Structure formats: C-alpha cells, structure tokens
Amino acid sequence: MADQSAFDRNNPLMQPLGPPPGLLEQFNLPPALIGFIRRNQRAVWIVLSLTMTLIVAVAAFTTYRDYRAGKAASALDAALNAKADQQKLLEQVAVEYSSTPSGLWAKLELAFLKDKEGQRTEAISRFEAINSGIPGKSLLKPLVLSKLGALYENDKQLDKALASYTGLASMEGFAAEAYRAMGRIYEVQGKPAEAKGMYEKYMEKTVGPDGQPGKDPVRELVQIRLNQIKN
Asked: How confident is the model at residue 121, as a pLDDT?
C-alpha cells in the first residue's frame, strides 16, 4: 500500500487541533471541579482576594505586636534600672504599653512600690485593679492573691483577706499556705471551729510523699495552735 500523502486531508496530521488545555487542566483537577470554578469565577476570585487580604493583615498585625512587645520590654528594663524617676518611668510603661506583659509587670512593680513606701491603701487599690484584669489561669494570679490577702489582713479587712486566701487555696501548690493564713484569721475573728478546720487542712497538705511530716518548724507551730484550740 502506498504511503499516505502528507497533504491528504484524511491524514491525521492534517486534522484541525483541538482547543489548547486551560490553566486549570494543567493542575489535573477533576472536570467537575474545573466546571464549577469556571461557572463561579467571580465569586472564587472574591474569596481568594479576601483570603489573601486577611493573611496579609494578620501578618502585619503580628509584626506590629512583636515590635511593640520589644519596645515595651526595653522600656520596662530601662525603668527598672533607672536610678532616678523610676516611678514616673514605670507609670509611662504601664500606660503606653498596658496591653503587653511588660505593661502588666510595670503595674505590679508600682503596686509593690506603694506598699514599700507604706501607702497601703494605694497599694491595695493597685493590686485590686491588677487582680480584676488578669484571668484565673494567669501565672501571676497566685502572687496577686497572696499579696492582696496579706495587705487586707494587715489593714484589718479580714473578710476580704479570707476571700483572697480562699481563691488562693483553689490553686495547685498554694493551698497549704492559704489554709494556714485562713486559720490565723479565723482565730483573730474568734471562730475556733473554723480555725481548727483550716489548720487541719494545712496539716494534711504538708505531709511528705512518704506519709511522714518530717521536721518543719512552721508545721510544728501550727500543731501548737491546734493543740491550744482543742484545749
């Protein structure tokens, strides 16, 4: 059989080419998905644009947040190491960077400073504000509750001191000292039964891993208080 002429219309090489594959076909997407995208091309582009805008916005916010956190940390470090105007510098950090961890730490430093200066009412007010602004799971919560309890106790606000120590008792690792403080307050209030209950809880919490109390002078003092209440 003679070879087929290259100019023969029946030659497959002379047949018209089909439409070139589109970009979507290049990704080997299922035909149904390709059809859906082409039918809803405008909506798909809108969604993609919004998604990219959101990604860029989140990235920009994260960068800005990290930048502010770095500036806040530097400002706090400068305030803590300042030899003059320390309180003023701490106030600036607390105000300008209030939403950062450094701003919170500056507020704590100011509260402790007021207590050190003997301004108990001001110190209590500052610690109360800090306490109301931090979540219950914050690592600073035990520190603030413990300090508030001591300040209330020294200021003869015994009911508020009990409330602070009650909150402290619910936190792992701080219950024993909270019970001891509560027992002390109940004694001052003339409530021996409640004091006895708190001291007994303290004794239970301070037993060693081997079930033995060991030598603990604080525990011995609590035992003396218990013996006196029982008598």
From this structure: 95
From residue 169, alpha-carbon distances to 4, 165, 193, 223 in Å are 98, 6, 19, 20
Do residues 162 and 185 lie in contact, with contact meaning Cβ atoms separated by under 8 Å? yes
Tokens of 12: 């497959």
Whole-number pLDDT of residue 210 = 62
DSSP H helical segments within 27-40, as ranges? Answer: 31-39
pLDDT at 164: 96
Token digits of residue 124: 């209590």
> Which residues in the chain belong to E strands, given as ranges?
none
Element containing residue 219 per DSSP (H, E): helix 217-230
Q: How many CA atoms lie within 13 A of 213 on its CB side?
A: 13
Q: Give, as one character, the DSSP assignment of residue 129.
A: H
Whole-angstrom Cα distance, residue 159 to residue 164? Answer: 9
Q: What's residue 66's pLDDT?
A: 66
Query: What pTM was computed for the model?
Result: 0.70
Instruction: Give the mean pLDDT per block of 10 residues along the chain (231 residues).
Output: 52 51 60 70 71 72 67 83 86 88 91 94 95 90 95 96 95 93 95 94 82 75 87 64
Q: Backbone phi, then psi, for 24, in 5-degree steps? A: -65, -35
Phi, psi at 186, each rounded to 5°: -60, -35
Spell out the residues 6+ positions from residue 184 whose beta carbon is closer than 8 angstroms to its own: 195
Whether residue 61 contacts residue 54, with contact meaning beta carbons closer than 8 Å, is answered with no
C-alpha torsion sign, points 186, 187, 192, 195: positive
